[in-house]
Specification:
Blueprint: H1 13-38, H2 43-63, H3 71-93, H4 100-122
Helix pairs in contact: 1-2, 1-4, 2-3, 3-4
């Protein structure tokens, strides 16, 4: 689908695909982790996961709309994904030994961080 999108100055849609997929995976993992955390009395972790999901989903949706692409806004959103992904991974890492969902969420967050950094350094985003 990404290859069929019209080219937009500064935005390589094919290069964005792995980042979109990483954001989607992080959003799913964070949503499920937050849900599991809610029953375990881990409010901070659940809140961090929920915020991560929100940032990842918004960034992903913005990447899928190249007609409205703005380099400054996209860079800010990817930077937010990096910041929130790092914070969420750090929080989930504290529980990873006792909670498989936290381990999975932390890994998904790190993958999103890496994907966003790759796009930020390889394009005009």
């Amino acid at each position: 689908m990404m290859r069929s999108m019209p080219a937009t100055a500064g935005m390589d849609m094919t290069a964005m695909q792995p980042c979109i997929e990483a954001c989607a995976a992080a959003a799913m993992a964070a949503t499920m982790c937050a849900d599991a955390d809610a029953g375990e009395g881990m409010g901070r972790c659940a809140s961090m996961c929920t915020s991560t999901c929100d940032v990842a989903t918004t960034t992903m949706r913005m990447m899928m709309r190249p007609a409205g692409y703005d380099a400054g806004a996209m860079t800010a959103m990817m930077a937010a994904c990096v910041a929130m992904g790092e914070a969420c991974a750090a929080e989930c890492d504290m529980h990873a030994e006792m909670s498989e969902h936290c381990r999975i969420c932390a890994a998904a967050c790190r993958a999103m961080v890496d994907a966003c950094r790759t796009v930020m350094t390889s394009t005009s985003a």
